[in-house]
Amino acid sequence: MGLQSATAQLGMLPGNPPRFDTERFIVVPLRPEKVRELLEVLLCDPPLAEQLPWLADKSADGARSEALLASLQCAAGTAIVWGIVERARSACIGVVIARHSLEGVDVEVLCASQFFGQGVADEAGEPPMAWLGDAIEVTLAP
Q: Across residues 8-15, what is the average pLDDT?
């Protein structure tokens, strides 16, 4: 199969996103206030922040602004954020973010830097991506 891009119609993302259970993680949908709270902490992780080109202001103020924006997008139905809870520690170590972009729906997996290189993005990101693929109208671009 050749390289293709997938786009979805702009508008609201599907409501009532499910919880996903993987071998190491529980991927649970977050309410807007929890999105803000978690991202305010996560985006202050310098090694993670350095990898995010959309996070122009790498300061605590920049993290707070982006966290607020994500929570407002969730409340408006234009973004979905799932928390990634590591089963072994019962601790939230990251998020899966699905939001509209000019190209369609972008899905990003962000995790605390101490979990880099441990397969978090693949394991925690795949179930939400598969669900989104089934739940929204996707058109393959030629």
A: 60
DSSP state for residue 114 in the 8-state scheme: G
3-state secondary structure the chain: CCCCCEEECCCCCCCCCCCEECCCEEEEECCHHHHHHHHHHHCCCHHHHCCCCCCCCCCHHHHHHHHHHHHHHHHHCCEEEEEEEECCCCEEEEEEEEEEECCEEEEEEEECHHHCCCCHHHHHHHHHHHHHHHHCCEEECC
- Count of residues in the chain: 142
Q: Is 95 helix (H, G, I), strand (E, B) or coil?
A: strand
Query: In angstroms, what is the C-alpha Rg of the chain?
Result: 15
pLDDT in tens, 81-107: 999 999 999 999 999 999 987 777 889
- pLDDT at residue 10, as a whole number: 44
